[in-house]
């Protein structure tokens, strides 16, 4: 999850404000989208793209990684618990931060993207815990 935080605003406050605001509005600016796509292709290789009125969508078929980029927010998801894939996701997350000015937050870990990226073992453990819970059902 990526969003803009106000100066001095905690992540909890920003997340609460985001929960209250569901109008994603327009898609990303064309130049921002093109820079993100170019860097994503450098990182991932071939990606499928789709632009709608309200967002840009980027899918990497081989890994299942998906990016939805809106004007003032973004979502980045992966379906697997592979440490290399998590590393790629966090690298793409840093691209989104740098190109959009949005800040990334990993809701599974309750940490900013850059902090979560610094501890990939924690991210992989979180995925493994969820997988165990789901397999027990």
List the helices and strands and how they pair.
Elements (H helix, E strand, L loop, with lengths): L1 E2 L7 H10 L9 H15 L3 E4 L4 E5 L4 E5 L4 E4 L5 H18 L2 E4 L4 E2 H6 L1 H16 L2
Helix pairs in contact: 2-3
Using brief descriptors, characterize the structure shown:
137 residues, alpha+beta, four-stranded antiparallel sheet, three-stranded antiparallel sheet, 5 helices, 7 strands, 47% helix, disordered C terminus
Number of helices: 5
Q: How many β-strands, per DSSP?
A: 7
Structural class: alpha+beta
- Mean pLDDT across every amino acid position: 81
**What fraction, in percent, of the residue positions are helical?**
40-55%
- Biggest sheet strand line-up: 2-3-4-5
The biggest sheet amounts to: 4 strands, antiparallel
The outline comes out as globular
Unreliable segments (pLDDT under 50, ≥5 consecutive)?
123-135
- The H/E string reads EHHEEEEHEEHH
How much of the polypeptide forms β-strand, as a percent range? 15-25%
Total number of distinct structural domains: 1
Radius of gyration: 15 Å
- How far apart are the termini? 27 Å
What do these coordinates show?
The chain is of the alpha+beta class and 137 residues long. The chain has one domain. It is 47% helix and 19% strand. It is built from five helices and seven strands; from the N terminus they run βααββββαββαα. It has a four-stranded antiparallel β-sheet, with helices on one face. The longest helix is centred in the C-terminal third of the chain and has 18 residues, at 83-100. The two termini are 27 Å apart. The relative contact order is 0.17. Residues 123-135 have low confidence and may be disordered.
């Amino acid at each position: 999850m990526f969003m803009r935080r106000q100066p001095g605003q905690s992540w909890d406050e920003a997340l609460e404000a985001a929960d209250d605001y569901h109008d994603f509005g327009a898609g990303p600016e064309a130049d921002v989208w093109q820079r993100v796509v170019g860097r994503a292709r450098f990182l991932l290789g071939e990606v499928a793209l789709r632009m709608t009125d309200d967002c840009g969508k980027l899918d990497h078929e081989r890994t299942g990684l998906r990016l939805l980029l809106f004007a003032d927010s973004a979502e980045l998801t992966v379906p697997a618990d592979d440490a290399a894939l998590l590393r790629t996701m966090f690298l793409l997350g840093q691209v989104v931060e740098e190109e959009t000015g949005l800040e990334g937050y990993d809701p599974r870990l309750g940490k900013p993207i850059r902090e979560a990226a610094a501890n990939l073992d924690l991210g992989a453990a979180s995925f493994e815990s969820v997988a165990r819970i789901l397999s027990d059902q």
